[in-house]
């Protein structure tokens, strides 16, 4: 497939991709768009010109929730309609410069209003690493881990779009050997390399999503950085789980890549042993081969790759996560976001957090500018990227980037 | 203060109370109202008649969020305007029967769209009881408990209004002595007696609410039943906290009692020792003396009181909860709900859950109909009530009630 729009060789936003997002010029009148090459297709302009199966009002909102709620038969149709318009020689869009805005001139917004946000913990390597460091190296995984996709509810209000600065959080930490906590800015600020999916179809209270129907309920995916303050987390998290160590901010990439665009990149996941309970059992390939990369850029220094991982490593897949989440009758809503948990690989260059890369702060990471890191310093910028490529088909996520500002007084 | 509206002796909804809620006739056109005696004052009718400081559109919505977001100077003014209209002899409402609907004819709805829901764990007696049962009787409280109000993020989508039936959840549980979990309907279904406050004023990411300003950010309170499946919870909750054991449903009372109506019932809380960090330190009386009661009604049997407790027992108060929640810069939004955690007293008749009342299922609770309980049976109805009374001033919460239906197939 080829488009008449210029798509640079290295672009994530090919004619195979066509992700949805919310954009504006200068923050005014946010509306729905689709990324192609270095451009944004303004879907409201296309709808007003009667080129799409959907009324303009669905694209003239500051979130995609109402559009997504129309359901996959409609949203997929719109994506294919735009694809056709971007491919055909006699496309009416060729004479409509008002239907395009260069990405470099646009402000990107959170693409959805997030109702509830759930964070899973589905990488075997990450859970094992954390268990070794925080608990018992001989019994790193807790007994439930291989029987269910462990997860917890996170804070939705503090999820922000790529480019938003992050203040270093303050909180209670327990100094080594002390019995009484002190109050201070976090000294062990970290990123977590994750991906998240966005729920596209609601369920009613009491209803469960069968594991083999789960993909019908997933609209698409984004990159997700689950910023974490390890010292705050360590002191607060027993017995009810992470709270302020995570809730100060999470960052997502602005473009939602549809599950349909990711279809060519399906692969089998790791073997699950012991066998899972029937409600979690699913045949076929349900992981996705998406190359992931994290760069760290100190102030006025070049970004440097500190991790290369892949979404295919996940032990629990998204279908299992969603089936598990709803097996108790918990309802889901359009716009709910469910993150994977840190995506670590086997190799120590594939660890998706500084906690693992610095092994709990015991190893320093050498940077090319001569500095070292164990955890994040003020003014460091972390950027996550994700790209799937196969047989000349390329579908990328763009990036999610965030800079650490000093703690507020 | 007296009103010309008939208020029965036992009514929670006196002229001192005037809580806000969302009601409808037959579920159609939900709108904002205020409870007085056995009536609902239709605030949209009053606004249309130019009797209130606010435009009708704020009362013609299915949630109170936009109204609450107007801020306390406005919302308090509206409450006092209605109070005056319900007291004065020559009130224009006396000739407006269309401004009233009997509560028995109304359907009550969720009063707010809940953005994020947080559940604290702020009763010393409850945390101690659970610690004794689940962990170590000699070290029941974990080291952080007296230094910070422990809390976790809960599921907002499954919060329902009083009267909604609750399906018994299914999930993974680990049979005693087994190493592998089984999938079944929960056998240890429980209620939790809690109260919750609703955030009335938003903050920005990076901002913290000072403990002595916290009451400006609290619009009002409701009764909260945090239904819990103890067997699911026990197997899943390490290391990231409660998830499916709680997320199948929580129930709230429909009327939001304002913090201003609760002002006469402020009392000092328990002494906090060790001393708390400065950001949690607050002088004066910040607990509330609210009598709480739980009844259990088996199918076709009378309700029976199984617990009497009081909100004043809380170790951590709401101002401290909100200050702690935001100390890391986590932003809050109008409509966020923050629950207290189970409110247990010292005496074993004041335990706010069946887990504690049956001491982990080891003691049976005798019912007057000859039956016994350790945990909830299908078709049991649990009702929580809360009333504050002092010097002839009475402010009640009404009730939150829910019936357990058998697990869905």
Automatic annotation (TrEMBL), chains A, B:
Residues 118-386 form the Fumarylacetoacetase-like C-terminal domain. It comes from Maribacter aurantiacus. Ca(2+) binds at residues 119, 192, 194, 226. One of its GO terms (molecular function) is fumarylacetoacetase activity. Its EC number is 3.7.1.2. Residues 17-111 form the Fumarylacetoacetase N-terminal domain. The active site is at residue 126. Its cofactor is Mg(2+); Ca(2+). Belongs to the FAH family. InterPro entries: Fumarylacetoacetase, Fumarylacetoacetase-like_C, Fumarylacetoacetase_C_sf, Fumarylacetoacetase_N, Fumarylacetoacetase_N_sf. Pathway: Amino-acid degradation; L-phenylalanine degradation; acetoacetate and fumarate from L-phenylalanine: step 6/6. One of its GO terms (biological process) is L-phenylalanine catabolic process. Substrate binds at residues 121, 135, 233, 237, 342. It holds the Pfam family FAA_hydrolase. It comes from the Bacteria. This is fumarylacetoacetase. Transmembrane segments: none annotated. Mg(2+) binds at residues 226, 246, 250. Gene3D superfamilies: Fumarylacetoacetase, N-terminal domain (2.30.30.230), Fumarylacetoacetase-like, C-terminal domain (3.90.850.10). Keywords: Calcium, Hydrolase, Magnesium, Metal-binding, Phenylalanine catabolism, Tyrosine catabolism.
